[in-house]
Amino acid sequence: MSLELVLFFVLAAIAIATAVGMLISRSTVYAALHLVVNFVSVAIFYLLLDAPFIALSQVAVYAGAIMVLFLFVIMLLGLENIAGELEWKKLLWPLVMAGILLVEGVFLVLQRIGQNVYVGTTGTALSDPSLMARVLFTDYMLPFQVTAVLLLVAMIGAIVLSKPEKKSATPLKPDGAKEA
Amino acid sequence: MVPVSYYIILSAILFSLGALGVLIRRNALVVFMSIELMLNAANLAFVAFTRIHETFSGQIFVFFVMAVAAAEVAVGLALVVAIYRSRQSIDIDSMNSLKG
After folding, report:
1. pTM of the shown model
2. The listed CATH number (3.20.20.70, 1.20.120.1200, 2.60.40.420, 1.25.40.10) that belongs to domain A1-84
3. Nearest-neighbour CA in chain B from A117: distance (Å)
4. Closest approach of B73 to chain A, Cα-based (Å)
């Protein structure tokens, strides 16, 4: 068993364990921290797959920016503790459906790809960020610029949505207000 | 050398765990985290396929998926804050105003 394969299995175990830990943790903060570890292990997978730029973006964007936003909202709303939320009796059908999804996915992979395609860090041109930038800024120039507009719209949307409501606006009816 | 099918199977496992999280959790924040997990699983598959086909398209798509995920999280968390302000709860079972 080569070193790379050992590394793969250790990282895969970490990734799956932290994903399960996120699902069953009783605190949203712990769930977020599990997810950070998961993102970092996926970033190391990207390094193994000769994609160093994507790996660093993963750490900076996901493990950095997005998870900080999550933690910020958790602490802003004071939602750290969500004990007793999981009901084990209701777990059967979701587990069955997720299991069906997993079996379908693995079946399709094994049917379409087969097991004889090997990859390793061979130091090919794929790991060169400058070559990737050349493709990004020529063939994918228009999508890149649309991304800028998307981020601007998301920023404006977040500001508009989180603005405090005006006092003069009619208050929202609580649950059960059903008069015609 | 790692067979590329291992990466795709790992991606399928992570995606299924994310889908399971969306189904079993009622806390809107954890549901969001599960959606992030699914996006990550898709990204892992993209990068693995990039490695098979020896082109940059997969990596560039991952780049765009990250941008879309960042936008989605910004808007989604703003929605969570707005919902919490109006209902004092982010339990997704309590968001049933459209139920007949």
Report:
1. 0.86
2. 1.20.120.1200
3. 6
4. 7
